[in-house]
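Progress report, Aim 2. The chain analyzed during this reporting quarter is listed below.
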Amino acid sequence: MLGLKAKLKSINILTIGILFVLFFMTNKCLSQDTIIGGPAYTIRIDTVTKIDTTYIIDTIIRTETVIRIDTIYPEHLQDVEGNPANGSKGQVNWHSLDGSIGLTINQLGITHWAAGGESNISGKAIASFKYTFNRKLFNYVTNGLFVYGTQGYTNDKRHEKTEDRLELAMTMTHNNNRNLTFTSITMLKTQFTNGYSYPNDSIPISRFFAPAYLTISIGYTYNIKNIVSIFISPSAGKLTFVNDQNLADKGSFGVEAGYWNIVEGDSIWIPGKKFLGELGFNILIKYKQDFGEHINVFSNLNLYNNYMDANPANRWNIDVDWETGIKFNISKSLATVINIHLIYDDNIKFTIDNKQKSILQFKESVGINFLYKFAVDNKKQINKYIN
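Predicted structure tokens for the chain:
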């Protein structure tokens, strides 16, 4: 009797062991996304995310890809490339960074030249970048432009600034794969160093963050074949900062100037304000097109109207910022660039015939640039399991 009980006990232990092994193997198979029966499924092994390098890239610093192994999705929830179809729970995120660094140098030497002139050397450094972050609902693009140019004269060893730009912009666009998209744009523009009205280089007429322009716009963008984009914002705020009290006291760049306030025979100086807020209408038109491999053309037109100006007579003044450039690519690292920049701002005054007036600002430059382009792609696709 005791022997029979011992045998039954051994059989029970063996049965439990076999069931445990079968249960463990079943769970292991399920954890590896193995599905038996049901609708048709596709097993994708070693699928590598595509990397977009359709634009000209001189140097790829680093590339990262995500390899998906044994990821199982129903065929009816996949597109032609195997990614989650529209309406599925798949999440697609990717990052990219590209930019360029350029240097332009010009030199002129004159000795006993009858036509006149002065020996000089000039140079301009340009750096730009574009960072893109793509999400399922919105795309985020951050642009930066940094330009600084100077010119030095040999005889009296003086230096004059020729160009100074510090610009940042962030664009958020609704990712709906349509021509008309909801867009929000934030732009900041200022300069690096003091500006002067040469030959007077003792009294600055502008400084870092004096002025600085911060524009926040919300509206819609209409794209035409990725060549022309038209952004219209009926509600755009423009903030002007003058972070220099001397310039603020003069009322530079549209801020309220300082004044003497006479109260009961006493004069009290009221400092000028360093801030000006405006609310208006903003239109931004961008054009960019390549003609073959050697010619690139771009044009950016920015229009702003302050329809909330305290002075009704100024409510129809339109600020214009229009820049156009043509680049002739000689090689991958060498290009000739023609650039024209027009600015009109009613808040910026110039002394003409002893009077303060707003006039059209014009700047044109032609030069040969030495360029170095870079790009970093890190595109990731995160596909969630779909029951």
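The first strand starts at residue 41 and ends at 48. The two ends are 53 Å apart (CA to CA). These observations will guide the mutagenesis work planned for the next reporting period.
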